[in-house]
Amino acid sequence: MADSNTGIYASFSLEPVEQTFLTEKEGRPIFADKEFVRIFIAGDKHTEVYREVTENDKLRFSDSYKRFKEGAEAREQLVGTPLAQWAFLKPSQIKELEAINIYTVEQLAALSDTAKQKIGMGANELVAAAQGYLASAQDSRAASAFAAENERLKDEVGRLQDQMKEMANRFETLEKERQGGSNGRGRAAAA
Length: 191
Hints:
Helix content is 58%, strand content 16%. The chain is built from 7 helices and 3 strands; from the N terminus they run βαββαααααα. It has a 3-stranded antiparallel β-sheet.
């Protein structure tokens, strides 16, 4: 399902909705809280859906919905590295990208050709830089995992070497006792 949502993002909110029947009946405004979803395409500020949440929305954007239910604000529902945390961009570029619904490096890296046209000159370079940044982060994550595994294995080898030394010392002690004991018995038998 994640593949079908590439470039499509959602943020959820709780909005008061007037209950007209109850308002007329009570003679005062009556509101009920309803969940709404804003679905947008990164790079396209003109295409946006805002409606009451459906069960399909909860399933399709389950990660965002879960964060919403845990109390996250709209921007916090997006997964990824915020553009402001990526040193590659200038503050003006960040503002320009946010104006067209691009808030994370992952969104920038997944832009369609149509969305790149809306950015204009330099869009391909920005997208390539974002993709490179993510690939580099993936590689460094793998390198960190390999380094941690390497350290664990070194510790294990060291522990096993210590066990082998201890066993060799015990074996040597037993061998000396056996040799000393058989010599002593042999002398006692000869006397």
